[in-house]
Write a structure and sequence with these properties.
Blueprint (H helix, E strand, L loop, with lengths): L1 H18 L9 H17 L13 H39 L8 E2 L4 H22 L11 H19 L3 E2 L1 E2 L13 E11 L5 E11 L4 E4 L32 E11 L5 E10 L8 E9 L5 E3 L2
Antiparallel strand pairs: 1-3, 2-4, 4-5, 5-6, 7-8, 8-9, 9-10
Helix pairs in contact: 1-2, 1-4, 2-4, 2-5, 3-4
Length: 304
């Protein structure tokens, strides 16, 4: 029973880690694989009592299972509230502690790591209650199940990264940008691509573009020179920042490059390139390219 309780605590600690603001740097699959292995160990150790058919159980086992469901789903409601509050508070703390630079301007949707933690609790809380509180819930053989479960999760994760269609990321509502250049009109552009759904990464694009009738240009990035005679606000990561809005929870984003070229007609071509791949599995990687095209009079021909 002590061993089962230790595993229950380990499961809860992994879930708490997933909803925390600690960066995963593309290694998010590691805690998910750990959860899969621990879950299958507990399911086998409790004889799969939480999911057994009522007809196959005696009266004591039915009572134990029903009590575990009642307690489990009461705890689930509390866990969801605590996880949601922790996620919001931690994101605000991280953003404010970085002077606002930590706020992403790209909305990647509901965090995949948050969804994994909640799904874990939804599926496993009755079994966690049984494993924690019952002296003899049943017998099982967990020898191979943890390894098989981890392998199945890994295969699903790689398949999602390799074949799930890329999705467009929405613009976050947590920021406001005001900046200008002499004799020019300006507009702030934000976009992104989500690779692998909630099990991959997000490549973001952030650019502040101005135009003056002669050419369109980017301001806010010191690596991109301004046209002759144009004065603009100083460097500000709120305006243009290459890679600032990337999210690397379950896959790594590498080689992010942002280039700005103005053609003979004064049209700006701002291009973001990045490579998304799971750790140690480069064969499952995908290239992401986004292009923003703005004419010298402010017409947008293409944007992510």
């Amino acid at each position: 029973m002590i061993a089962r309780r230790a595993i229950v605590l380990a499961v809860l600690l992994v879930c708490a880690f997933l909803v925390s603001p600690v960066p995963l740097y593309g290694f998010g699959a590691v805690p998910v694989l750990v959860l899969a292995a621990l879950d299958l160990f507990l399911l086998a150790a409790t004889g799969w009592l939480g999911y057994a058919r009522t007809g196959s159980l005696d009266e004591r086992q039915v009572a134990v299972r029903d009590l575990a469901y009642r307690r489990g789903f009461r705890l689930l409601g509390l866990a969801i509230v605590v996880a949601a509050i922790a996620t919001v508070v931690s994101s605000r703390v991280v953003g404010l502690s970085s002077g606002g630079a930590g706020f992403s301007q790209v909305d990647s949707g509901l965090s995949g790591r948050f969804l994994v933690a909640i799904a874990e609790l939804v599926v496993m809380l009755p079994t966690l209650v049984i494993a924690w509180s019952t002296l003899d819930p049943g017998r099982g053989d967990p020898t191979l199940l943890p390894a098989l479960g981890a392998a199945a999760v890994a295969a699903t994760w790689v398949a999602a990264l390799a074949w799930t269609p890329a999705q467009s990321a929405a613009v976050s509502r947590n920021f406001a940008v005001v900046a200008s250049a002499t004799g020019s009109s300006c507009r702030h552009f934000v976009g992104g691509r989500i690779i692998g759904g909630g099990l991959g990464a997000t490549v973001g694009m952030r650019a502040h573009v101005c135009w003056n009738g002669e050419s369109a240009f980017v301001i806010g990035d010191p690596s991109i020179p301004l046209p002759a005679g144009v004065m603009a606000d100083p460097e500000d990561r709120f305006l243009t920042a290459c890679g600032a809005d990337n999210v690397e929870d379950f896959a790594a984003v590498s080689g992010t490059t942002c280039t700005a070229k103005v053609d003979a007609d004064g049209t700006l071509h701002y291009t973001v390139y990045a490579h998304v791949a799971p750790w140690s599995l480069p064969f499952a990687g995908r290239d992401v390219t986004m292009e923003l095209v703005v004419t010298r009079d402010g017409r947008v021909l293409s944007q992510p």
